[in-house]
Every structure is written in C-alpha cells, then in structure tokens.
Amino acid sequence: MEGYPAGSLDHNAPLLIASGLTPPANTTALGDPRLEENAILVRSDLPSVDGDEATMLLQYLKNCDASDLAWNGRHARRHRFRIRTTGRTFLLPPRRARTPEGFSINVNSIPQTPPVLHSPFSPLSPISHLYPDGLIDARWLQKHQDLIPSVYICFYSLINDPALIKLYDSKMKSDITSIKNVLSQSGYKTRLAVVIVGGESSTFGYERIQERLEVIRRGTGLDHKTFLYIPPQESEDQLVAAMDAILASLFTQSMDYYRDMGRHAKKKRSRGITPQPSVPPTSGTSRTLSVQAWNVRYDIKTAVFSEYRQDMDAALRLYDNAYETLFGSDVWQIIPSWSPRWNEARLLADILALRILRCLQWLGHWSGSVRRWKQHRDRISDFVDRRGQGTENYGWEAWQARWATMMAELIDKVDIIELSPESFKLYLEPEKALASERLQPWDLLHHPGYWHQLASRHLIARRRFARRIPENDRKPPETSPSTRMASNTYAYDTYMCPEPHEEADADHSSLILNALACARTEFQLRQQRRLSAEIALDCANEYMNGGNFRQALKLLQPLRNDMTFRSESWWDISERLNWMLRSAAKKARLPDLVVAIDWELLNRSLDFTRNKDWEYDISKSLNHVSLDSKPHVALTDEQVIPFVSVSFAFKSDVGKAGQACPAQLVFTSNAFPGSAPVVLQGVEIRFEGSIKPLNITHKETGATIEERNNVAFSATNLIEDESLVASSEDEEDAITSLTGADDLTLNPGQTRVFEMAVQLREPGEAAATLLKMVYDTDTFSLDYSIQFRDTSTADVWYTPSGMQKRLSRTRPHLINIQPRPPKMDVKLVNNKNQYYTDERIILDIELNNAEDADAITKLDVQVWGEEVPEVVLKMGDREKTCVPVGEDDKTIGATIPVGTLEKSTVTQAQIILGPAEMPVEYSLSIKAHYHLVTDPATPIVQDDGYRLIIINPFEANYELLPRLHPDPWPSLFDPSSLANTADEGRAAPCGLAQKWLLATRYASFATEELQLLDLDISILKTHGSVQCNISKYDNIPEGGKTVSPRTMETADFDVESRRMSLDDPPGQSSMEITFLLKWRRVDSSPDTVNITSLPAPRLFVSGSEPRVVATAEYKPVDPDSVMFLNVVIENPSHHFLTFSVTMDPSDRFAFSGPKTCSLNLLPSSRRVVRYRVLPFVRGAWIRLGLTVKDKYFQKVLRILPTEGMNVDKEGVLVWVPEETTTADDDEKREEKNEDDEDDGK
Questions:
Q1: Which residues cross the membrane (predicted)?
Q2: Residues 748-761: pLDDT tens digits?
Q3: Do β-strands 891-901 and 883-884 pair in parallel, antiparallel, or remain unpaired?
Q4: Which residues of 167-313 form beta strands (DSSP E)?
C-alpha cells in the first residue's frame, strides 16, 4: 500500500496494551511533540513481572498479534487483537487540545465566553492539520490503531513472604486504583483489566490466595471479568491455555468498547448541526466544514468502529454513504482544484474506495469488488476531466498504475484461498447475486498478476507522457520564472506523483520492470506460459533500452530454447524475439547465438519480414562482433528452424544384401530472394542399422548445373572407403564408409537433388537418422544437424527432368534389407524324436557348402531354457564349452571357427549336452556365419532351429504294507536280548523291530522300448532313532529286461526297521528314499548306463501307538485243511495296556480259539492270539468278525492285513484258495453235472 498515508489502509483490529511484562524503561511515545505536552500518563509504581512465566506470556502475546493477519474472517483463535507491550508507563494523547497561543477574550463581548476546546485530531482545533475545513486524515485512524487501546492489561505478581504480604497487597490496591482513576479522568472509555500471575501451588495456599485476591478486587472496585488470576502452571501449554482464555474473555469487552464508540459517533451525526471551532478562522478564504462534510466524517468514524467489530456489512454501508456524500455537490464539488484540500479529498476518496473493496472481498463479493474498482476509476476520471487537469497527462497514468497495483496488493492481503497458486485458478466465479447477469470477462476477479500487468501498461503510458514534457518545464523551480512556475502548477496533475522537473528524470524503467516482474511471477506460479513469455519479452525490451543486455539475455534465451512460439507458429513473436536476442547477443559478444539466430532469420517460409538494415549473408554474421578466436558453432534442428529443408529417401523400401539401392538427398533453400548463396563444405549422413556413414564433400565442378522447375539434379558417385578389410578367418567384416564429392552450393529458392547408389551389406532394418551439414567461413565454422523423423505426408522422388513422383511411405528414409539367400546347408543328422532325463545327448551337425565359391565360416550354437546343463561344441580336435550369453543365465552359447570351407564340401561337428535332471524343453539354434572370399563385405547367415523336449522315462508310485517281523522282541526281563554289540564291535540297534513290504509300481513313459538293467532303493535319510534296511524281493534277470511303453511293472522290497534302544522315547520314525532305475536305449552301446532317480514320499516305519497285525497260514502238507490265523498285538509305548479280542461266529467258516479274551501287554512287548479256522467255501474271500479294542480308551484298533488278507470298512478278509483236485474227482464232478441235467429235463 505504498504511497498512501501510514495507517490509512491498515487492517482494523482491536488495540490491546499489555503493561508489566517488559522492563519499566519501555515507554510508548506519541510521535508528536505537541501531543506529548499535555499527554496523559498512565503509571504503575510496582515492579514488572519477571521470571520464566513472564517470558512465556510475553512471547505468546507477540505471537497472537493480529497486525499481519490476512484480511479475511478465517482465523482459528477466539480473539483477534492488535497487541502492544509496554513497561510500567504509558502515554495517552490529550482528550482536548490546549488553548491556542496568543488567544485573548474580548472584554467588550457580552457575554464573555471561554473558547470551546476540541480534540487535537479534530478540524475544529487550530493545532490540527485539518483546521479549519479539512475532513479527516490518517492521524485519527492511527489514534485508535496505536494510541488509544480498547483494553489496558496490567500484570502483577504475588509474593509469598508473610512479612510483606499485607504491605504489597496494599500497594497493589493503591496502584490499580490510581490507574483506574487516570483512565476514568482521561475521558477515554478504555477498559482496565488486571491479571495476577503466580502464588502458592498447594491447596491450602490456593485458598489463602483466593482470599487475598478477593480483598484486592473489592478494594479496587473491579468485577470478576476484569480481575483475573493465573495460578502456577506445570507446563507452558497450560499457561498458554490460561492466557488464551483470558484474551477471549477480554475480546468481548473490546467489542463492547468499539460498539460504544460507534454509538457515540452516530449520536453526534444525528444532531444535524455544525460544531463551532475553538478559534474562528481569520483568513479571507477560510471557511468551516458544512453539515454534509461533518456527516462524511461521522460516517467514516462509525464505519471504522464497525470494522473493529468485524461487522463488515455495516462498515460497507457506512463507507458507501460517506463515499457518495463526498462526491456530492456540497463537499468535494465546492473545493477549488488549486486548493490543497482538493487533493486531500481525492486521497480520501481513494481510501474510502479501497476500504469498500476490502469489505466486499471480506464478504466474498468478488465480481462486485471488480465492478466497484472500475466505478471508482471511471468516477475519478470524469471528476478530473471536469474539475481537474484532465486525464491526458502523466499524473493520471501514474494514478491508474497505482490503482491497479492497489487491487493486486489487496488480493494478496485478503489471501483468497480459491485464487491461490496451488488452485491454478485464473479468476473466480461471480457471486450468486450476479450469477444471472451477463458479465464480461473483465468483471471477474482475476489473480494479482493480471492487475500488475495492467499497472505496467499504465506505467509505460506514464513514461510516454513524461517524455513529452517540454524542456522549459524540465528545469528545477529555482531556475524557472515565477510566472512559469504558477502556470505549471495548473498544467500538470501532480497528485501522488512528482513535479514535472522530477518526473522527466524519474526512473520509469525500474517501475515498469518491478510491475512486470510481479506479474510474471504470478503467471508462472499458475502455469500461464504464454503470458509469462509475453511479459518476459516486455522485460527484456526494457532491459535492452536501459543497456542491461546480460539481464535481457537471461530472459530471452530460455524463451528461445523452449520453442513454444515456433511450435505453435507464432512467427511474428518469434521474429521479434530473434531480433531482440540478436541485438543483445551482439552487444554481449556471444557469436554462437548470433550465428544461430542468423541461420533462422534467413528463412522466408516462416513469414518473416525482410529487414532492410541487415545483409542477408550468413558469412557476414560476425563482421561487427569482436572475437578473440574463430568460434565453432554446433546447432541442431531442435534449437533452430533452418532455412534449408532436407530429406533423404530410398527408392524402394525393400533391398537385398550385396546389392545397391538408389537413394536421393534433397536440399531445398528457403532463403530470402537476393540473399547470398550458401556453400557447404560437406554433408554427412548417419544410419541406424547396417549401412555405414555417407560423406559428400564439396567440389567445384566449374560447369553450370542445369535447372528445371527450379530443381537442380545431379548424380553422385559413391565409393567405399575401406579402412579395414577382413583378410583372415578370425577378423570381422570390413568396416567401410561411403564417400562422394559434388557441388554443394545452395542458391536461394533452389532445390538440389543428389541421387546416389547406396551399397547394402548386412541384412536387417536400416534408416537414415541424422544429417550433419558443415559450413565454414573466415570468421566461424558451423555444424548443423538434422534428425530424420517420420512424416505424415508422402515424400517425393525426383527425376532428371525435374518431374516428381510421390512415395506413399511415411518413412521413406527407412529400408528393410533382406538377407542374401544362403546356399550353405546346416542340419542335424541324428536327431531323435524324444530325449529323456539322465541321459547324455549327442547331436551331429553337418555343414554342406553349396555356394559357388569358398566360404570363410564360423559356427555359432546357442541353447536356451531352464537350467541348461553343460554344453560342449566339438569340431575335430577342437572343443569349446558354451558360456552364458546376455544378462540372464537361461541362454548359453559358443562360437567355433570352421575356417575356409571349399565349395561342394561337407564337414561335421558335434553338440554334446549333459544329462538333464528334470523334464525340460530346450531351444537349439545353429547358425553358420560366413562370407564368400569373392565378396568379404557381405555377411551371410544360415540358421536352423530345433526343439529338444526332455521327459522322464519312468514314473512310479509306492505303497508300504505291514508285515510281521519273525524275530522276537527284546524283553526287559531277558538281559541277553538287550545286547547291542555287532561283530565289528560297533553299537548295533537293539530296540523294537518291525517289518514292512514296499510295493512299487513303475511304468515307462518313453516312446520306444527301453532296456531295464537294474532296480534299487536308496535310503537318503532317516528321521528318529531308527535304523532301516531294505532288501530286494525280486531281481532283474542278468542282461536286463525290455520294458515296453505304457506298461505297468511291479517290484517289491522288504523293509526292516529297528529302534536303536528300548530306552528311546516312543515316537514316529520315518525314512526318505529314492527309487533308482538303471537303463539304456535298445540301440545304444552296452557300456551306456543311465540312472534315473525317482523321488518317493516320506515313509513312516515306526510309531508310538499300538499295532495289530493279522497273518493267515496253512500247513504245507495239507493246504485244504484248517487255516491258522495269528493276531499279533504290539505295544511299542512305555505304558501298561489292556486289550480285548473278540471273534464273532460266521456261517462261512468254523473256528477254534478264544471267542472273547483280554490281553495285558507290558511296555515294549507284543502278544499273539492264535485261531484255527475251517472255511466252508473255497476260492473266495471270507470275512472274519475279529475285533480288537483298547479297554482303557474304548477305542477299536485297526487290524493290519498281511499276505493273503485284505481289509475294508466292515472288517478283515481272508482269501481261501481253491481246493486241490485229482483226475478222479474231475470225472465224478462231470457225472454229477450230467445227472443234474437229466433230472432237470
């Protein structure tokens, strides 16, 4: 708010004076000696409060100061004070001004009355600056903002010394009473508040303090709202909370104070009379204020007091009344424009308008504030045109710039969240009251950058008017005649701006740059790049006009590098930017930048205008630039748009290796007509792919190139510059570059076509990626690079006659080089249909050279897949192990040189793969890289791929069946059974033994017959204190046996488990095994043995629970006789157990043995119950009603069957074989059947 009187536009927050927290020497001054003569002194004789609590309270009060808060109603606190701290003294301004010096009462006047004294800030007092006809100034506003508080707080501390308590309390009462009387006699309505800090913290002490405080309060006549106490607090947060509650309570009293002041101002306005001054004005033209002028003053006072109460609606209404009355016919209209009061009234109008704008924005009337801003500008413009010096002068433009700046600063002060940079909003939507109206864009409230930019435009207009000031008016007043000075007084509007002689020499550029910098910052924060760039151009122009070229370059170079204007085809702005930047770069001695700009300014296709003051010759760009050395400039098409357009195209999009493909390089010069020709020293084209770089150098031909349709066509011969040619078997292909020479002169508006034959060597996709033009002069050298990009428009192919043929390809600079068809055969000669795990794979490779010439060849083999085994590439006596290729370990490969393979010859190599441990699929790639000795520059590749699928040759499943161990269990009562010494003297297991049968079923998943050599079970690991032994049940015949595909085979193994000791705690024991099958292919050599390991699940061979095993047997001499059934109950635990055994009768057999019995088993023992069973049927299963139950747990135990037995849900089944028969028995059975048939007939 620069330029307006201090305090005139400050935010009105209630003033609070805190006394007694700072040293006593700190006294608030009034700032005016005339006021300090009769000032009212508020003084306290008691010492200030000290200690940590006072320091924390003082810091908290400073933090609560609302002087710098945003001008809006958004605040979290319950109070909003403008807080000032002082010592034990404070000065209040006098309520009445003193009697004017030299004033005497006229004794002849009847009656004799003394003069009426008024406030020193009133226009009725002679000592006031407003006397006798001034309206109001900022001093009255400062009086309530800084001098007269609404609340005066006195801080006191309590002492705990019993000997001094009464004396100190008496002094405190006298001190408070004295301050209260001074405030009461001063005539001000300031509220007094007393805050007592400290005291005893105990319960008894707190009650005593309450009594002391009550005595002091009653003695001073204060109420509970103004006499406050802060007891000792345990933490700073509690102390702050207590003080915050006190301020919130005092804020209500502060609002009452300003409400009373507003009522007093309204009461004085309602009188409708003009008060008399202390001394009548004596000058001839002096007059006092009219009633309307007093109404303006009272309305302003009432509005200010409403702002203190944050009643913005009332303040807005009162400011509006004062504003309209000020522009009325009885106030400002009657003030002559030559009077100082005229500018004071104009200043008051600005202050009222700004306060109205603040109220509108406080209330959220965004568009209303913009309209009010425009109305005040238009109203002042009309008033100045009618009564002032008009609007066609620098003073009016200076005021408009300040008025726009005030709006920007006001928006910043109000701190509108919706318009913050984080919201990226450019303007605010209108309020609901104006939503239905058709508003113009300038009626919306824009962010501060818009207003700063508007201010910069008025500052530029102000400078333009200042430059028109005549020379006579530029002289200082002391050198100008008085008559001319008088005429200047009425010719120029100097409201809030310098006099003409000062304005002519003012630094307008700094003012403009400050406004533009503020606007650019706001635009950049909201990502408005175009407006930011526009303002940067204006700033650079100002810097260049002031000779600050370095600063201009800092602004212009980022704009040029950004290429925003060029990408959007703003050529007029680009041209302006280039010329400005060229001038600055020339002054700053930056040759690189000058050449780059000249390279672009030659382009007439960008709608650039011709500059008659510049020679269109790129070779003379640095003629007037001082240089220390010859610079080398490197540019790209991303930095500069050149005047030369370049294209490169292959005639066909497909070519073959070893052949040449026609291509054209086309230059089109878009230089201005009449500009000097450009002679390139050389051209280089770089390719992506197998094509080597292409270089064309300049060569003077001396002959005139024929042009047709402004197209100059020339055929350029290219040769291969061989820097390294492969001459041995171990060297790579030849590294070459294509070179040629031609006339590289480019005339303005000319199209140069260079047709050439590009030799294609390696297969693949190749594309021209970069073209570099080399230009050299006496003063500088230039390298300009252009990237070849995909185009959406079709390119053209030129003929020698100048005709054009369209190439309907979006990438004409790309060609697909197909490989030269190889005639060398690469194949596997012994590839099998199926491979299996655990076998070594040997692959034979055959190379057959069917080319017409000898070939220098190398063989490349790659295998990729999961967990690739070791791979060896073998050729003759040479071997090479494959190594990982690439970043992962899934691909391995090796390359072995074959050497010179003569035509029509065959050679062989071998690939040896190690055994795979699991089913997997490998991919095999075999490549023969070779080139013919007659054409070493063209590589040829013959490749072939195979899939190697490796599967398991066998699959198996397993079943562990219970068996009865024939050996007796060791007994704790038989020491001989507990011996655990083996023959070798080592400890042998002597615990409980159990027997099992491991039944394995395996099948061949091969696609062919395999020769099975042997079967075995390998114990990998045992769990628990147990030892396991496995023996074969069946043996493979010597020489093996042939296993057919998809046929199931069985193999049984006996498993014996024995615990190490009877002392071992019972528990489950298990073993981990693997099934080993030794096999080979039928057609493989006898020495080949492949071992396949099939994993098996964990097998549990011992437990802690009782086990019931049943066996059935016959007498060997008479199988048809009685069957013996043995029921064995095993107790491996360390507990005494009792079991009941029950055998139910059946009509299918008869039995002899206990039908029901009880068995008592000692720990680690087993017992046998034997039955003799006579079956009634033969060749069938009989079901035994056998039940074994644990009598303690009442749990039926599962009976485990052995050979010849089975079990289902209903019980145990025993197989009864067919009875053995003789020949006589067969004859008798047949005769009986025949008799049965006859009886049936």
A1: none
A2: 999 999 999 998 87
A3: antiparallel
A4: 191-197, 227-230
Tell me the angle at which helices 549-562 and 529-545 cross, rounded to the nearest 10 degrees: 150
H or E segment and range at residue 514: helix 508-525
Compute the residue count for the chain.
1241
The pTM score is 0.66
C-alpha to C-alpha distance for 333 and 1138, rounded to whole angstroms: 129
CA–CA distance, 394 with 465 (Å, rounded to integer)? 5
Paired tokens of 820: 């030269």
Q: Alpha-carbon torsion 805, 808, 810, 813, what sign?
A: negative
Within 10 A of 242 (CB to CB), how many other CB atoms are there? 17
Q: Please report where in the chains the tokens 């390991």 appear, as a residue.
A: 1093
pLDDT 10s digits, 777-797: 989 999 999 999 887 566 889
Task: State the Cα angle at 505 between 504 and 509, rounded to 5°.
Answer: 100
Task: Quote the CA–CA distance of 737 and 254 in Å, as a whole number.
Answer: 92
Per cent of the chain over pLDDT 90 is 42
Lowest mean pLDDT among 85-94, 107-116, 175-184: 107-116
Q: What is the DSSP letter of 147?
A: I
Q: For residue 1073, give the nearest of 1044, 1088, 1051 by alpha carbon.
A: 1051
Here the tokens at position 848 are 């057959």
Residue 208 is inside which H or E element, if any?
helix 203-220
Summarised one tens digit per residue, pLDDT across range 151-182 is 999 999 988 888 888 899 999 999 999 999 99
Give the pLDDT confidence score for residue 484 in this predicted structure. 47
Are the CB atoms for 885 and 891 separated by under 8 Å?
A: yes
Would you give the end-to-end CA distance of the chain in angstroms?
A: 138
Contacts of 300 (CB under 8 A, 6+ apart): 136, 318, 319, 322, 352
Closest CA to 1186 of 1108, 1122, 1105, 1132: 1108
H or E stretch covering 1215: strand 1212-1216
Is the pLDDT assigned to residue 183 strictly greater than 80?
A: yes
Sign of the alpha-carbon dihedral angle for 1172, 1175, 1181, 1185: negative
Report the C-alpha gap between 1159 and 1141 in whole angstroms. 8
Strands (E), 670-807: 678-679, 682-688, 694-698, 707-708, 711-715, 719-724, 735-742, 745-746, 751-759, 764-776, 781-787, 795-798, 804-807
Q: Which of 751, 749, 752 is nearest to 716 (CA)?
A: 752
Per-residue pLDDT tens digits for 436-462: 788 888 899 999 999 999 999 999 999
Three-state secondary-structure class, residue 684:
strand
Instruction: Show the tokens assigned to 873.
Output: 């590439």
Q: Is 515 left (phi over 0), alpha (psi -120 to 50) or beta?
A: alpha
H or E segment to which residue 1169 belongs: strand 1165-1175
Q: Edge-to-edge, what's the strand order for the sheet holding 878-881?
A: 824-828, 841-849, 906-913, 871-875, 878-881
Pairing between strand 835-836 and 940-951? parallel
What SS3 class is residue 653? coil
Question: Which residues make beta-bridge pairs with 1001?
Answer: 957, 1050
Rounded CA separation 1016/1074 (Å): 9
Instruction: Among 199-213, 259-273, 1081-1095, 1168-1182, name the one with the lowest average pLDDT.
Output: 199-213
8 A C-beta contact, residue 1212 and residue 1199: yes
What is the full DSSP assignment across 74-125? --SSS--BEEEEE-SEEEE--SSPPPPTT----TTSSS--PPPP--TTSTTS
